[in-house]
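Hi again,

Forgot to attach this to my earlier email, sorry! This is the prediction with uracil bound. I've pasted everything inline since the attachment limit keeps bouncing my files.
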Amino acid sequence: MSKTQIHRGKVRVGDTVVSDPSYLFDPEADEVFYKGEKVNYSEHVYIVMNKPKGVLCATEDKNQKTVLDILPQEFLRKNIFPVGRLDKDTTGLLILTDDGQFAHKCIAPSKTVGKTYSVVLDGELSPDLVDLFKNGITLADDTVCKPAKLEIIDKNVAELTITEGKYHQIKRMFGTVGLGVVELKRIKIGLFDLPENLQEGECRMLSESEKLDLLAT
Ligand code: URA
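Structure tokens for the complex follow:
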């Protein structure tokens, strides 16, 4: 609801019409009504976005567009941030929230929530890679990756599930075996799939059950 709607007397807290947008209500005790209908207030917001190419996963940037710049006004909240990072040229499932604890549960490597990516490569995938990734591949700079699940879909298309988020991890994992990533899209986190009807650049609020699916290991 906008400040104008509040000024117009469309908002009631309990039995009292409140026309001052700075009015502080008690989220635990007060019932808030907008145009007579009860508003289900929640302390935090949880948003799913289908990230398009060309935008940064950051809260602000002097020169480039960020995922917050493309978030519709009604989703914006103070302290909102993207959960984890997708590269500028990566598309797909991105969660935005203002709930730090939830974000931690989703991305902390110790929580082992799987993130699945659809990957198009510039060369042919060898079946040997399945075991190589399963055993934890060592990157060129000696960083050891946790076990990852590789499913070969086509000769140069795969789905890869990882449980951590090292810098450019997937590009570096394939780079180690001489393959370049041509397209990268995140399609799943935990048990939550990128909604099919969410077009690139679109977003919507998550339901309670979707929030649980996101944290499922
Ligand atoms: N791994 C990458 O290399 N890039 C991403 O955006 C995500 C995972």
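Residues 86-87, 90, 168-171, 184 surround uracil (CB under 6 Å). The domain at 46-109+194-214 is CATH 3.30.70.580 (Alpha-Beta Plaits).

That should be everything now.

G.
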